[in-house]
Amino acid sequence: MDRYVTFKGLDCDGDADRLIARLKELSGRGTGSRWEAYFTDKLAQNARMGQDHLFFVGAHVNTLRSFFEECDDADALELLDHLELNCC
């Protein structure tokens, strides 16, 4: 489905997939962060609703930013910024 025609040439879906993969990796570490359970629940809800990862990122930009800042993950924050500015 190509609903993001104004973003032609950008891999918004692929970038969102990469960000969610990083989120799952970080939140699966078992650090006890309050965000781990939050994102596990929200990702499950997103899947049940049949929404894609780009929708998820757009709906959770601020909480994702807080989590990646807590993890001190500059690469994930850079990717999140890119997605927010160019795709969401």
Write the layout of secondary structure elements.
Elements: H1 12-27, H2 34-49, H3 53-59, H4 61-70, H5 74-86
Helix pairs in contact: 1-2, 1-5, 4-5
What do you see in this structure?
The radius of gyration is 13 Å and the shape is globular. It has one domain (10-27, 34-86). Helix content is 70%, strand content 0%. Helix 1 crosses helix 2 and helix 1 packs antiparallel against helix 5. It is mainly α and 88 residues long. The chain is built from five helices and no strands. Belongs to the CowN family. Is required to sustain N(2)-dependent growth in the presence of low levels of carbon monoxide (CO). Probably acts by protecting the N(2) fixation ability of the nitrogenase complex, which is inactivated in the presence of CO. Keywords: Nitrogen fixation. This is N(2)-fixation sustaining protein CowN. Pfam families: CowN.
